[in-house]
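seq as requested:
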Amino acid sequence: MPLFRIQHLHKKFGNNTVVDDLSLEIEAGECLGVIGPNGAGKTTTIRMCLGLVSPDAGSIEAFGLPIPEQVRQAKKRMGVVTQFDSLDPDFTCAENLRVYGRYFGLPMATIDERIPKLLSFAALQAKADTKPGELSGGMKRRLSLGRALINDPDLLLLDEPTTGLDPQARHLMWERLHNLLLQGKAILLTTHFMDEAERLCHRLLVLDHGRKIAEGTPRGLIAQHLESDVVEVYGEGAEQTAKTCGHFAQRVESSGETVFFYLRDARPLLQALADKPGLRTLHRPANLEDLFLKLTGRQIRDDA
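struct tokens:
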């Protein structure tokens, strides 16, 4: 039986359908990623999983417990990191962990035993007596993750946990999350970082307008929906090159001053471009960002 399951979930706000017949399952030790544009329904889904929003139809189960009916019992085995930090600014790092542990009714001896380990996990050993206002953004996110682990949860719900972090902090967070997966924890992760999704997620769901439009492993989705190679062409004359060299590619797209050639064999195009020294080119394998843009489009979405 899956650790966590959503079946045929629906949610509307007024006339706007935010989640449309969504189903998913997560096993122990698995990271399931959910990607999609702003307004795709990712955060609303997380909020329904936490019992903060009631679905219009469908079911949510965590550890065999129905949500929202038994959400309090289910939350005892869940850890949550939301998009925005909810750390208490009046407490030190250690006190934030201690107070949060009390919410779960944990014995003080258990909490005090876990605090040094969680501060070390978050690489904040030297900040135990520091208040959140004195921490960097990356430190706050790491403390939020450490706090989410105070009850030793079996399932983590992470809503864009690395947004706003610099590369060093993101890589440290990835390492910590990978270690949790090796311990058998399950993770539901929403993210806008495609490299993060490819590194951490065993499976991915792509959402658009509240509906699941693709599901599979990161590499499997790329192989299913995309050509194997991408050649990016920049600079003056790129648009003209799209017209004269488009026949080399299965698909050609333009964005700003960049033309993207999607191909299964890039050699003929690269040979043709070698005679155009004024252009800059980048030849690379197709990736999750290409998948995201193909399935959901390149247009900017307003937040919803």
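The mean pLDDT is 93.
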